[in-house]
Specification:
heterodimer; A: mainly alpha; Histone, subunit A; 2 strands; 34% helix; flat; B: 480 residues; alpha/beta; 11-stranded mixed sheet; protein biosynthesis (chain A)
Chain lengths: 97, 480
Amino acid sequence: MLSKSDIDKLAELARLGLVDEEKAGLERDLSAILGYVDKLQEAKVEFTDELIDENLPVNAMREDGEPHESGLYTEALLAQAPKRKGDYLVVKAIIEK
Amino acid sequence: MIDLSALTIAKAAAALRAKEFSSRELVEAHLSLAHEKNPSLNAYLELFEESALAEADEADKRITAGEEGSLLGIPIGVKDNILIKDKISSGGSKILATHRAVYDATVISRLREQGAVFLGRTNLDEFGMGSSTENSAYGPTKNPHDLTRVPGGSSGGSTAALAAHIALGALGTDTGGSCRQPAALCGVVGMKPTYGAVSRYGVMPLGASLNQVGEMAKTVADVETLFHAVRSHDKMDNISCDYEARRFKATPTQAKRVGVPRKFLEKGLPSDVVANFEASLARLRERGYEVVDIELPFIDYALAVYYVLLPAEISTDLARYDGMRYGVYLPGANLLKDYMRSRGEGFGKESRRRIMLGTYVLSHGYYDAYYNKARAIRQAIVSDFKRVFSGPEAVGAIATPTTAAPAFKIGEKVDDPLAMYLEDIFTVTANIVGCPAISVPSGTVDREGVRLPLGFQLMAPHFGEELMFAIAKDAEGNTV
C-alpha cells in the first residue's frame, strides 16, 4: 500500500533519520496496520458538532499571561540544553550561505 | 522481618499507626527485597534509596505527631514518565537518558501531601508506547510469575513491582490500557480514571485526548485510596475538571446490573479465558447482581479508531524532542540533519513507527479518510456507552476480560506490531470513551505448566468511580 518514496517523504516530514533496512520494514508494517484500520471505512457515520454529553469535560481556556514569576526555572531548564550561550540555546543557521 | 507478600496499603497504614513497625522499617524491607529481586525483573530503573529513607523518617515524625495522611509512610513506585523533582525522568527513552525533572507532577505533589514515600522509578515502554514493556531503551521488564514472559505494558515496571511485593502501590499512565493490561498480566489491580479526573501536569504527553494517570495496587480498596489521593481539579491541565459537580449517581437497580457485550466477545477467545470470565460473572450473580447482554454496535471499530487517533496525537506529542532544548543531541551536516539524527537515533523503533504512522494519517489526502472518520466513529462509540449507562435498562458497568490471553513470551510479538496492538482490544474503548475502567485479578490459567493470572475488566459511567469500585470489590477474588 505504501511505497518506498512515501516512506522517504514521511520520514523527512517527521524529521526522522532512518536507515534503509528500517524503511523496508516500515513499508511492510505500516501497510499491515493501515490494512487493519481500513475497516473504519465500513462504518456509516459522520462527525457531528453536536455535544453528545454536556457532563463531559472540554478544554478549559485561561487568560494569556505569566503562569509564574519570569526566570524562576530558567537556569534549571537551560542547564539541560545540549548547547547554550548565556541564556540562549545554540542552534545551526536555518538558511545556509 | 515484615512479611511483604501479605501486605497491602490498608494493612500497612493500620500497622504504621499502631506502631507495629515504622515507615523506615517498611521502606528498608522493600528496598532490601528490591535489591534481591530487581536485577532479574528490571521493574525499577532506579531505586531512590536515600530520598526514600529521608521521606520515611519524615513520615514517621508525622505519624508520631498524630498527623493525618491516607498514604503516610507508604512506599510507592512511579512510572518513569511522571516527573519527580530533581530525579532523572527518562520516559524509558534514550532521548531523555540524562533528563532531570525541574518540578513535581501534580499527582506527585498530591501524594506528597498524603505522606507517600517514593521508592523508585519504574520501567515502561518508551513514553508509554507498547503492551509488553519490551520497548524500553533500558531493557524489558520480566513477569514475576514467569521470567520468560512479559509483564504487559506500558506500565509493566509498576505492575511487576507490585506482583513481586517490592511496592505497595504504584502510579502509571493509561492511554489505551497501559495500567489495566499489565495489571491483568501480573495479577494485580489497575485502573484508568475518568478523563479529566486526574491532572496530567508534569506527565510526559502521549495521546492528550486519551490518557490519564492510572493507579495500581494489590487490592481494589488500595487503588481507591490512591485514586482519592491523586484526584484533583488542577488549572495546569486544561482538561482537568470539578469532579464533585459531575459525580455520577446510579439508581440502586443500576448499581447491581452489569452488562456484557456478548457479540464483541464471541471471536477467538481461548476456552479457559472464557471460563475464567464466566466465573467472575457467576461471582457477581452470587452477590446479587443481574448480568445482562448489551449491544454496542460500534465497539468493533474501537481498536482501529485508537490506532488512527493515537499515532496522530503521538506524532505531534513527540515533536518536542528535537535535540535543541533538552535530551539527546546528535550533530549532522546542517540543522535539518541535526533533527534527523537526534530524533532518528534518539527514539526507539516503536516510537519511530508510530511517528511515521501518525504523520501519514494526518498528511494531505488522508486526513478525511482516516482522522476525521476515526473522530466520527469515536462519537458513535461514546453515544453507545451513554445509551447503555442511562435509562430504565441502564447498567452500572460493562464487563469484559481485560485481555484475550495471559502473558505472552518475551520476544513473541516484537516483530509483529499488529499482533502487539491487538493486546489492547478490550482496553482501548474506555480511553476512546473517556470513562473509568478497572482490571481486577480473576484467577489463573495454565500455560506450559505455569499458572498465569488473568484480569476481569469493568468500565463504568463517566465520573462513576465510586460505583465502579463497589462492583469491582464484589468481583475481586481473594488475592492477597
